[in-house]
Amino acid sequence: MSAITVRVPAKVNLQLAVGPLRDDGYHDLVNVFHAVSLFDEVTAAEPLDPAPERDPSAAPLRVRVEGDLTGEVPVSDDNLAVRAARALADRAGRSYRADLLIRKSIPVAGGMAGGSADAAAALVACNELWGLGLPVEDLMEIAADIGSDVPFALLGDTAVGTGRGERLAPLETAGVFHWVFALADGGLSTPRVYGECDRLREEAGVAAPTPAVSEALLAALREGDATALGQALSNDLQPAALALRPSLADTLAAGREHGALGAIVSGSGPTCAFLTESAERAHELAALLKDVDGCRSVVTAHGPVPGATVAG
């Protein structure tokens, strides 16, 4: 095949419990991931220009980004999709070439793992394009080395991540949950938010707790109970995100005032996520939030959805 396109979802964190800082610079986490129907697409194609042996200046892996939400997405070797393709080639022990096209719909630096999603999609697309036939278990290992959220983008649906979030176990989930996402102007740096979380705890003299999954959250997922799930949403990074971006508090308050079952900062932010009881109610809430100060745009989605999948 000359080109493979893979669709990959965004995630929202239903629970993000942050434990102590580890010696490797990461935190111990309990991270309940939930894949939602906001998708990026990554196409891996065979380059049309001359091969490197005929043109030494030809780059083995190149990337382009399209869409309204490109933001500060790098188009260099720092792009996570490029890193993923290179890691896949290294695992195969051979040299490969590809042109990568990323079509963005997932917010950039918005706490919804858009870069990690693109990395997962690149793994699947290049595995197909290059005819490697590596099993998903191998792709998961490569993904974990690239970033903590990348394995979940491969898996999708709903899962709990432990360690730094890369060790995944699927969770039983009944029914469909309906979401509204308020996208803020600009992004928030994930390392900066974690650093602020550590600073706030130190300032308050509070030791980082040992993270544990919420039994109330697990029960709500099993039963498909949106009301109970809304009450069980939690994010230990939320105080840090609010400290760095105080306007998010107004956005969360507006969603609650307009009847959201649950309101939470997604991951490290600044996207705010609101759970509703139905698709109709999600569209109504989205319309009400569009005029809230600090909201660049508002979108609706549902979950759970599958992880990175080759487009038919």
Low-confidence stretches: none
Largest sheet: 8 strands, mixed
Domain unit count:
2
**Which CATH architecture of the largest domain is right?**
2-Layer Sandwich
3D shape: globular
Name the average pLDDT. 91
Determine and state the CATH class of the largest domain: Alpha Beta
Task: Count the E strands.
Answer: 12
Quaternary state of this entry equals single chain
What series of H and E elements makes up the topology? EEEHEHHHEEEHHHEHHEEHEE
Distance between the termini: 13 Å
| Class from helix and strand fractions | alpha+beta
Question: Which range best describes the helical content: under 10%, 10-25%, 25-40%, 40-55%, 55-70% or over 70%?
Answer: 25-40%
Catalytic activity: 4-CDP-2-C-methyl-D-erythritol + ATP = 4-CDP-2-C-methyl-D-erythritol 2-phosphate + ADP + H(+)
EC number: 2.7.1.148
Pathway: Isoprenoid biosynthesis; isopentenyl diphosphate biosynthesis via DXP pathway; isopentenyl diphosphate from 1-deoxy-D-xylulose 5-phosphate: step 3/6
Domain GHMP kinase N-terminal: 79-156
Write the layout of secondary structure elements.
Layout: E1 3-21, E2 27-45, E3 61-66, H1 80-92, E4 98-103, H2 114-129, H3 136-146, H4 150-155, E5 158-162, E6 167-170, E7 177-184, H5 190-204, H6 215-223, H7 226-232, E8 234-235, H8 238-244, H9 247-257, E9 262-265, E10 272-276, H10 279-289, E11 295-303, E12 309-310
Parallel strand pairs: 1-8, 3-4
Antiparallel strand pairs: 1-2, 1-12, 2-4, 2-5, 5-6, 7-10, 7-11, 9-10
Architecture overview:
This protein has 312 residues and is α+β, with helices and mostly antiparallel strands. The protein folds into two domains: 3-171, Ribosomal Protein S5, domain 2; 177-303, GHMP kinase, C-terminal domain (Alpha-Beta Plaits, 2-Layer Sandwich). The chain is built from ten helices and twelve strands. The chain has helices at residues 80-92, 114-129, 136-146, 150-155, 190-204, 215-223, 226-232, 238-244, 247-257, 279-289; strands at 3-21, 27-45, 61-66, 98-103, 158-162, 167-170, 177-184, 234-235, 262-265, 272-276, 295-303, 309-310. It catalyses: 4-CDP-2-C-methyl-D-erythritol + ATP = 4-CDP-2-C-methyl-D-erythritol 2-phosphate + ADP + H(+). Belongs to the GHMP kinase family. IspE subfamily.
